Structure of Acyl-CoA dehydrogenase:
Amino acid sequence: MTVDLSPEPAVADLARRTAQFVREVVLPLEKRQRSAAPSEAVRRELQDAARAAGLFAPHVGPEYGGHGLDMRGRAAVFEEAGYSLLGPLALNVAAPDEGNMHLLEAVATDQQKERYLRPLAAGDLRSCFAMTEPAPGAGSDPRALATRAERTSGGWRIDGRKWFITGADGAGFTICMARTSGSAGDAGGATMFLVDAGNPGMKVARHIETLDESMFGGHAELVFDTCEVPDDAVLGEVDEGFRYAQVRLGPARMTHCMRWLGIARHAQDIATRRAGERELFGSRLGELGMVQQMIADSEIDIAAARGLILRACWELDQGDPAAQSTAIGKTFCAEAVWRVVDRSLQICGALGVSGDVPLGRFLREVRPFRIYDGPSETHRWAIARRALRRQASELAR
């Protein structure tokens, strides 16, 4: 079967217009921002501008105001949006909302789509995804899920503690993973619940101070204490939450890679401009062999990351779970993006560590990506296990 990785003309045009929008509208506003995290007013301003430009929520279906992009189409557009830290927020393709929209489109009932997906896709509210828990609860191993949901006469009661829940502050609703059968360590028995903001049984316990600061709504610790929800709050089927999580996590890992690849390109552009302008020791930086090697290595990292993203996206678009390809892509991209930003800062020297260019901030923002969505070590372990199983299967034939 032929693998065609080139974007369709309509997608290429959308990516081009996104790139223009980011440079003409988003980046100037980003430079005026004094705080790392934008305000709600800035979010609304950016999203209104993206909506007016016909770029808003391109990943959701036309019935929700989007372009219905498949994963390969998202790769082209999201990379251009990610050229700015605020670009994904402007287009409403930032985490965790983008991944939650994907999940709701795939799993939610028609009623749930109207109540949650439609306003989320319109930017009228935000959301969060509550799975990760403090140790020894769910983290890199979701089977350690400890939050429990028990049946009541009117629905379900959720009890537990979640932490590092991105976007929780100000979210209109939460998708909460809770164990409905079995015990911590079991491979099944989880269920997803839609919990509305304002539910008296769900509270933000604290805001977690982190290295990165650009995620809208920050990272929070949530407490579910006798949190009661009705039966129609169940997303999908009872005890099938881990299966639905895979519907979200594989594509979400790739969309993270797409957005951060945009930042890597931005960092490389800053570095190459500096290398072409800065003169010392009788020549321009870009004429020095060591600098040329760093620039070349970054070009290789960017191209290789894009190729791995597109390969995984092609598999996902064919309906394949793409577990191996998404794990490989996520691991490589997380580390490649870091390398590109780090090299760019090094090339720029004192300018790179100053606030005159955003490379220092980029470095802080991209470093956690080697941990978010599964640390590189966990992915390498899974990649190796699949390779060993494949070899054993081939030998058994």
Remarks:
- The first helix runs from residue 9 to 32.
- The mean pLDDT is 95.
